[in-house]
Amino acid sequence: MSIILPGGGISAGRFRQLFLLVMLEGKRKSADLTHVTGKILFGQGQRIIKEGNTMEELDDNIQKPNTLTDRFLTTQLTVLKKLKIAQIYRFRIY
Questions:
Q1: Overall average pLDDT of the 68-81 stretch
Q2: Residues paired with residue 49 on neighbouring β-strands, in sequence order
Q3: How far apart are CA 22 and CA 54, in angstroms?
Q4: Sign of the C-alpha dihedral computed for residues 17, 23, 24 and 27 taken in this order
Q5: Exposed/middle/buried for 79, CB within 10 Å: 0-12, 13-18, 19+?
Q6: Who has the most CB within 10 Å: 7, 10, 27, 28?
Q7: Mean pLDDT within 64-72
Q8: What is the per-residue DSSP string for 43-84?
Q9: Are 87 and 93 in contact (CB under 8 A)?
């Protein structure tokens, strides 16, 4: 017997996941989220591509997540909190 349950999902892209991970580690400020996320990506050998150019320096790779961090903190995190997605296991993101 199989049961079909209709449902939906909320997209949690790479940057959202990294921001939530950094928040679980106790970081809350935009600058901290941006810096740690940029370091994680850079450490994995990944680079940001801006206007067709690959950003090879760590400082350059931190600039793009800064824009994404601000958008995450001002809009996306609020939605994730209301849906209780930002409350992972016993941790709570305030």
A1: 88
A2: 54
A3: 24
A4: positive
A5: exposed
A6: 27
A7: 80
A8: HTT---EETTEE--SHHHHHHHHHHHHHHIIIIIHHHHHHTT
A9: yes
Q: Tens of pLDDT along 3-60? A: 665 667 777 788 888 999 998 888 888 888 988 988 898 889 888 787 888 888 877 7
- Specify the DSSP class assigned to residue 12: -
Using a cut of 0.85, tell me whether the model's pTM lies above it: no
Say which residues have a Cβ less than 8 Å from residue 56's Cβ, sequence separation at least 6.
47
59 HSE (CA, 13 A, CB side): 0
74/91 Cα distance (integer angstroms):
21
Residue 12 has which token pair? 């949690």
